[in-house]
Amino acid sequence: MALAISLIVTVLEILNGFLNTDPELLKMAKTFHANKWQILTKIVIPANIPTFLNSLKVNIGLSLVGVISGEFLVSKAGLGYLIVYGGQVFQLDLVMTSVIILSIVAAIMYQGVVILGKLVKR
User: Which CATH topology does 2-121 take?
Assistant: First the structure.
C-alpha cells in the first residue's frame, strides 16, 4: 500500500525535474558530442539531486500513511491496528500514543533525509 501511494508521486515529481533541467546545459553537452549516458550522469542527475531529496521528504509522510491505512484494513497488530482498536473501545490513550509514535518516527526519518541532503551537497 505504501509503495502504491508514494510511487506515483515520486515518478511524476522526478519526471518533472528531468524535464525542467536547464536546456542550455543540455544544448552545450550536445554541442560537445556527449552521448545520452553522459548527459544523464553528468548533467541531468546532478541537477536534480534537490528534486530527489524533496521527493524523499514527501514520500516519508506518504509511506507512513500507506502503511497505517494498510494496517487499518487487514492487520492484527501494529500502530494502525492500535488506532482502530483504541477508537472502537474508546481508549484515547492508545490512539494518541500511536499518533505520537508515528510523529516521532516521521520526524526522525525527515531529519535523516535532511542530514543526507547536507552530506550530498558537500
Answer: MetI-like fold (1.10.3720)
